[in-house]
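Supplementary notes for students who missed Thursday's class. We covered one full example, reproduced here. Read the sequence, then the structure, then the short commentary at the end.
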Amino acid sequence: MTRLRDNIEQALTQSHAQYESLEQSSLALNDVGESYTSLDSMLASSRELLGNLMRSQKSDTWYLQTTFYMLLSTLAWLVFRRFLYGPLWLLVWLPFKLVFRTTVGVGNAVIKSGGLSSPADPAHADQEKVSVDGLPDDSLPTVRVGEEKEIPKSGSDPDLLIEKVGKIVDEGGEKPGETPVVDDQAAQDASGEKDEL
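Structure (token representation):
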């Protein structure tokens, strides 16, 4: 009987020790679970912090790059304005401007004058008439350039020349005591005619 009681007491003590160790392990597990939840919350907060840092770093880099490029462009503009603007204006822009204005002026003058036409072109010679102040109409004698006209030769028809001289003498109206008025050209032609005869 005593032996059975000793065995029961021994089993009770063992079960009591196992119960205490189970409670201790459950407490330890609760502590580990709490530490894991705190670690999860810390990881989530660190992830948000890291995202904020990345966004701010990108914006800071963009601001830094933009400022750097603006500084470079300002320096380039200052160098251009200080050293290159004057010579480029004198050597490139001013001649280009003068050539352009001259071309435009000549073009306007050609357009106002009615276009270019060659004076030796017979098709344009008949069409172009220049108006001159003081001339009443087209009845004035004109000379046409480029047209062939038959000119009588002095040696070919002597009768014609003699008739001309006679008409001039008759028109001059001879009066007694006056010498007849004869055209110099007709007199020279007549003298040339006599020499040939």
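Commentary. The chain is about 75% helix and 0% strand. The chain has a mean pLDDT of 77. If anything here is unclear, bring it to office hours.
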